[in-house]
Amino acid sequence: MSATAVIGLQWGDEAKGKVVDLLTDQHDIVVRYLGGNNAGHTVKFDGKTYKLSLLPAGILHEGITSVIAGGVVINPQALLKELDQIISQKGELNNQLMISDRAHVIMPYHLAEERVLEASLKDAAIGTTMRGIGTCYQEKYGRSHAIRVGDLYRDTFSDKLAAIVEFKNRAIAALDPDFEPFDAKQIEAEYLGYAERLKPHVADTTAFLHRSIKEGKNLLFEGAQGSLLDIDHGTFPFVTSSNSSGCGIHNGSGVPEKHIGRMIGVVKAYTTRVGGGPFPTELDNEIGQHIRDTGNEYGTVTGRPRRCGWFDAVAAGYSARISGVDAVAVALLDVLDGLEELQICEAYEINGVKTTDFPSHLDDLAVAKPVYRKIAGWMSDTTGITNYDDLPENARNYVEALGKILEVPVDIVSVGPDREQTIVRR
Ligand code: GDP
Ligand code: IMO
Ligand code: MG
């Protein structure tokens, strides 16, 4: 038995979906363990593009079991829509999908609450994906009004929901004069419909994963978001509401860390961020725009233009240490093709003091000035290269510099969105 984990080391969208797809064949089970439909993972092969949000990338492979574990927050309507979309692209799925009965359910009032919250913050808004992710996790930790997948199948669901909706209607109306109250019976009917369709997939996934470990099955954990969006270790409060670094695997899946033999951290060859929050290496100039255009840096989920900047090794190095990554995958290297000179941020200067520690407070990160190392670029196209040695010398120098500064070997280099456009070194 072996387990591999793929996590993002930046602010999300590092190409985790592509890397998971690449590794799926060596595994039996792919597990999503955190986040919800705030994630957008793109997988491309045989001329087709698949956009996954809640479904693990394993769903695209025959004979693989895909697990949505208890740490995920599930919008059942979004999940069913995604399932229909994938079936329309791939035909009927002949592999297993399991959904944890412990996973929390995103309800319509979570979306309404998030709209009120974000609006109240005006310019200081987090810039969330507005999918009810944070408000559903808030509910989970608040406990009293939380609904888990397993609750949808109990006789108590109707009464429980009625009491919650009454409370929510009063609370939201007090904050938003335009609010139209929810009808508990209508939500109940809608969610019972979703529950019926999802029923064949709902299971105790923790027990299943432990049985699979005993049987020697190989597990692949598919991270969502990026480590810098981690609720405990990220750029708080401009983060997501769960543990999106490697720390989330244990609590999100019930599988202890000791089983994870290989923790792979995915980085872009540069940095992007969607939503608010400080971003020291952000390029608000023509190079930033060039990266956005070349890398097609527009959000998979919300379509928002992603903020782009140079590779930040202080931030990514911090993420790599938090999760104890064994190897790095460097993606979107091709986007830097044709840039004469590249820069890697190897330290920050904060109020005149140079440091390689990632600041714990937002205000310090907001004034951090990147200390850059300049590296010569390469002027040729890398998108067709599949052997590491065939990369231009300067591209290899760049990749080596990233590995060295992160103190982790670069095992995978990606030079295009397609599965084939990949250099696997180890
Ligand atoms: P994820 O959320 O980490 O799975 O990443 P996303 O799918 O949101 O964003 C990565 C984007 O980059 C997607 O559009 C991918 O198709 C694309 N992509 C992945 N790897 C490469 C690469 O090496 N080069 C280029 N140009 N695009 C890539
Ligand atoms: P993948 O898995 C990039 C960002 C949002 C916002 C913040 C909080 O595709 O890498 P939320 O809706 O989670 O409460 O929003 O987190 N964010 C992501 N950014 N990729 C993601 O997922 C993200 N998921 C959330 O833009 O800044
Ligand atoms: Mg994404």
Average pLDDT figure: 97
The quaternary organization reads as single chain
The beta-strand count equals: 20
State the major sheet.
Answer: 10 strands, mixed
Spell out which ligands are present. Answer: guanosine-5'-diphosphate, 6-O-phosphoryl inosine monophosphate, magnesium ion
Descriptive account of the structure:
The protein is of the alpha/beta class. It is 32% helix and 21% strand. It is built from twelve helices and 20 strands. It has a ten-stranded mixed β-sheet with strand order 9-7-5-2-10-1-11-15-19-20, sandwiched between helices. Strands 14, 16, 17 and 18 form a four-stranded mixed β-sheet that branches. Strands 3-4 form a two-stranded antiparallel sheet. A hairpin with a 2-residue loop joins strand 3 (41-45) and strand 4 (48-52). Helix 3 crosses helix 4 and helix 3 packs parallel to helix 5 (157-175). The longest helix is centred in the middle third of the chain and has 19 residues, at 157-175. It is globular and about 65 Å long. 6-O-phosphoryl inosine monophosphate binds next to helix 4.
